[in-house]
Design a protein that fits this description.
four-stranded antiparallel beta sheet; 307 residues
């Protein structure tokens, strides 16, 4: 037997089962929040930015400078592919496993001046670079894992592009981003034979997780729970075969409605029984029983079982 539900019946079903629907939404919302908080591993990201610009101070032609800028913008597309290439990522992986020494102060070349006689005189002695052993943590991350964690982004017609690294540890994400930028800058000179990459901002530790988004996931869980609760309510009503009104008997089954049997409350039945008992006490031979004080009998409720 096919059943169809009108809009008014659907609204009535929602009102009838509103508590169940809200309970389903609450349960799914709590489950989604617990999943995002205690089960799913949080992810953190860090970003470093690089500038692609040719260091050409000899050219004073505006047209030539503009052409160089456009060439640098076009090069970014190539650089985006190179920075996630196996050659770069293998070196980044090695650097993460075995950190090299860090340069505290770069080396300074010796400076000379010539006197009026043409003699070369030392003005400032050369100073070697000051280095220290890296105190950073070591990370064992393969090149394939690095490729999945790195995302390159840039604005249209911009000479700046960003390297975003997403990891389970915020310090690890920042370190990978900085090492990736440093290795790329040093290797691009050998690969492309150009020196036009500058690191303009280093990645910093950001302890605000980027995934999972707990609030959004919780709202999604609540909405899913409400939908499940609504489907449960509709399915329960559609599979309910009990007779709910007399139109089903008359229109669907073609039966004749003979009347209604009213439902009487307990106090009303007690009043009727008292009236019958008093009537029998006064007249035992009369087949018709009259109840004295019948005015005290309550009117039957019209919450009836219909035949």
């Amino acid at each position: 037997m096919e059943q169809s539900i009108s809009l008014s019946q659907t609204i009535g079903i929602i009102r009838k089962h509103i508590l169940v629907i809200l309970i389903w939404g609450f349960i799914f919302g709590i489950g989604a929040w617990a999943l995002a908080t205690f089960v799913i591993t949080p992810k953190y990201s860090a970003e470093t930015q690089l500038l692609v610009s040719r260091k050409n101070t000899n050219s004073v032609d505006n047209g030539a400078q503009y052409a160089d800028q456009q060439a640098d913008v076009q090069m970014i597309t190539t650089y985006k592919d190179i920075i996630t290439n196996q050659v770069i990522l293998d070196k980044v992986s090695d650097e993460l496993k075995n950190p090299s020494t860090e340069i505290v102060k770069p080396a300074v070349k010796a400076k000379y001046e010539r006197t009026y006689t043409g003699k070369r005189v030392l003005v400032q002695a050369a100073k070697p670079a000051v280095t220290k052993q890296s105190s950073g943590r070591t990370y064992d991350i393969s090149a394939d894992q690095l490729k999945k964690s790195i995302k390159i982004s840039n604005q249209q017609n911009s000479q700046v592009f960003g390297v975003t690294v997403t990891m389970a540890d915020p310090e690890e994400a920042a370190r990978v981003a900085n090492i990736c930028a440093r290795v790329f800058k040093s290797q691009i000179k050998k690969i492309m034979a150009v020196n036009n990459v500058t690191i303009i901002s280093k990645a910093t530790v950001n302890k605000r997780k980027v995934a999972p988004r707990t609030g959004l996931l919780t709202v999604g869980g609540v909405l899913l729970g409400v939908v499940v609760g609504l489907m449960y309510a509709l399915l329960r009503e559609l599979t309910d075969r009990t007779v709910k009104d007399e139109t089903f008997l008359t229109d669907t089954l073609g039966l004749t409605n003979l009347g209604h049997v009213s439902k009487i409350s307990g106090q009303g039945r007690l009043s009727i029984l008292r009236g019958v008992s008093e009537g029998n006490h006064h007249d035992h031979g009369d087949k018709t029983v009259k109840a004295e004080g019948s005015s005290r009998v309550r009117e039957p409720k019209h919450l009836s079982n219909r035949v």
